[in-house]
Design a protein that fits this description.
With 450 residues, this protein is α/β, with parallel strands linked by helices. It has helices at residues 21-36, 60-72, 87-93, 96-100, 116-124, 172-175, 184-197, 225-233, 253-261, 278-283, 290-301, 322-335, 362-385, and strands at residues 11-17, 39-41, 50-55, 82-86, 104-108, 130-132, 154-158, 160-161, 180-181, 201-205, 240-244, 268-270, 308-315, 339-344, 391-400, 405-410, 415-419, 431-439, 443-448. It has four domains: 11-132, Methylthiotransferase, N-terminal domain (Rossmann fold, 3-Layer(aba) Sandwich); 151-266, Transcription Regulator spoIIAA (2-Layer Sandwich), CATH 3.30.750; 269-384, Transcription Regulator spoIIAA, CATH 3.30.750.200; 391-448, Nucleic acid-binding proteins (OB fold (Dihydrolipoamide Acetyltransferase, E2P)). The chain contains 13 helices and 19 strands. Strands 2-1-3-4-5-6 form a six-stranded parallel beta sheet, sandwiched between helices. Bound molecules: S-adenosyl-L-homocysteine, iron/sulfur cluster and FE3-S4 cluster.
Length: 450
């Protein structure tokens, strides 16, 4: 943990995180704030005075998990533990959580974490129910004063919060509110600080990083997302810069130009397509067509370095026909993604697609998901084979003792597990050259080159 002074830790907290990387990073902010207040983080609910769940509501299953957790731990309330629900389910359900889980004392959304100390003081003073629910419309800064860096090798930096896209199926605009960007100066200051802490890899985060809008300086001097990316890539000491997530509509060619020009920018782009059918994309209110998506793919394929492209797909959106689904399968073939995260459409509260007719039965959604994943597996098997014999630089992430292998990650964001020669002990967080000797659908195998 860096940058967080530890003040006489007595009270303890347990924090479990669900959902996306933004939630993971928000949890780092929560940990930083609580440690600063004198709390100590513990590994189990049993050891904790304060139990927090940082929740996700992107799909129904994710939301159910939270309420299952809360019912599991009902018995602990008698021991005087305090329960809090943070994150997207907290923001979405608000005070209704107190009705569903009466032993919860704190319900707080992601924009309120800087106020956690005050909220906890109220609970300690005996207040039964405390909320930190933002109206989601303020421009207030979402940064906390302290952040614990729980990932020792990758430093996360939020550059933009919220989302203004309102895709028909998605809860995020309702849970994280409207788009708010940080100034480029504050992003760069944090990047420099992380380099000082010894980080060599930075990941810029936002639900839509390409919608980034700098408010620093005169309009002409404000950085675009691509300029900010390039500037972070030029911070001394930084060797790898990643960014997620990109929305196809705002994904400009200047991002590819930046990747071409700045070698520290990783050659990996996650560009969720959701569907290969323009008709379905229109119903999803995604604001781009199949052809526009493929145009962006063509830009990436014309880049100087090979860019690894990954995506998200939703199957079984209301009204999705066999022909629409076939178009998605065809798109997978055409693009050749390195990984696809595929989900069955899940109807969510507040979203416009809740009202759409032509729901696809769950069994059919499951069938489409299986067909899609099998197809993508074949694509990956063929793609990953091509790297056998090539030498890749990996960041060492850890060791798999059972297999006597080290775990590495390439700039393309592929996992490359490798063996090292006698006597060589690669250190986590350092970089190694590895020759690829084998491939699997989701990872590569190799030997360290010394
Ligand atoms: N901002 C990103 C996505 C964030 S949510 C983007 O626009 O691409 C992560 C992924 O969850 C989405 O890409 C989508 O594939 C999936 N998802 C979101 N809402 C969903 C829903 N209601 N049902 C199923 N999958 C969903
Ligand atoms: Fe959700 Fe669409 Fe915003 Fe992504 S762009 S977070 S899918 S509303
Ligand atoms: Fe989930 Fe909220 Fe992230 S809904 S995916 S934790 S923005």
């Amino acid at each position: 943990m860096s940058g967080v002074p530890q003040s006489n830790p007595q009270k303890t907290f347990y924090l479990e995180t669900f959902g996306c990387q933004m939630n993971v990073h928000d949890s780092e902010k929560v940990v930083g704030t609580l440690v600063q207040e004198g709390y100590r983080q513990v590994e189990t609910v049993e050891l904790a005075d304060l139990v927090l769940y940082n929740t996700c509501s992107i799909r129904d299953k994710a939301e159910q998990k939270v309420f299952n957790r809360l019912s599991d731990y009902k018995k602990y309330k008698a021991q005087g533990k305090t329960f809090g629900v943070l994150g997207c389910v907290a923001q979405q359900e608000g005070e209704k959580i107190f009705e569903r889980a009466p032993y919860v004392s704190l319900v707080a959304g992601s924009a309120s974490y800087r106020n956690l100390p005050q909220m906890l003081v109220q609970i300690e003073a005996g207040k039964q129910r405390v909320t930190g629910l933002d109206d989601r419309e303020t421009d207030e800064c979402f940064e906390t004063e302290f952040t614990a860096r729980t990932n020792p090798h990758r430093g996360y930096i939020t550059i933009i919060e919220g989302c203004d896209k309102f895709c028909a199926y998605c809860v995020v605009p309702y849970t994280r509110g409207k788009e708010r960007s940080r100034t480029s100066e504050s992003v760069l200051a944090e990047a420099r600080q992380m380099a000082d802490f010894g980080y060599t890899e930075i990941q810029l985060l936002g639900q839509n990083v390409n919608s980034y809008k700098d408010s620093e300086g005169k309009p002409g001097a404000r950085k675009t997302f691509a300029e900010l990316l390039a500037a972070v890539g030029q911070v001394p000491g930084i060797k790898r810069v990643r960014f997620t997530t990109s929305h196809p509509r705002d994904f400009g060619r200047d991002i590819i130009d930046a990747i071409d020009a700045v070698p520290t920018l990783c050659d990996h782009v996650h560009l969720p397509v959701q569907s290969g059918s323009t008709r379905v994309l229109d119903a999803m209110q995604r604001l781009y067509t199949r052809d526009q998506y493929l145009e962006r793919i063509a830009w990436m394929k014309a880049a100087k370095r090979e860019i690894s492209i990954t995506s998200d797909v939703i199957v079984g959106f209301p009204g999705e026909t066999e022909a629409d689904f076939a178009e998605t399968l065809g798109l997978l073939e055409e693009v050749g993604f390195d990984a696809v995260f595929a989900f069955k459409y899940s109807p969510r509260p507040n979203t416009p697609s809740l009202k759409l007719d032509d729901a696809i039965p769950d069994a059919e959604k499951a069938r489409r998901l299986e067909v899609l994943m099998a197809k993508q597996r074949q694509i990956q098997i063929a793609r990953y084979k091509k790297y056998i014999g090539t030498i890749c630089e990996v960041m060492v992430e850890g060791r798999n003792v059972a297999r006597a292998q080290w775990i590495g990650r390439t700039s393309h964001n592929r996992t490359l597990n490798f063996t090292a020669p006698e006597g060589a002990i690669p250190k986590a967080g350092t970089y190694a050259s590895v020759i690829v000797t084998g491939s699997f659908p989701n990872s590569l195998l190799g030997e360290m080159v010394v």
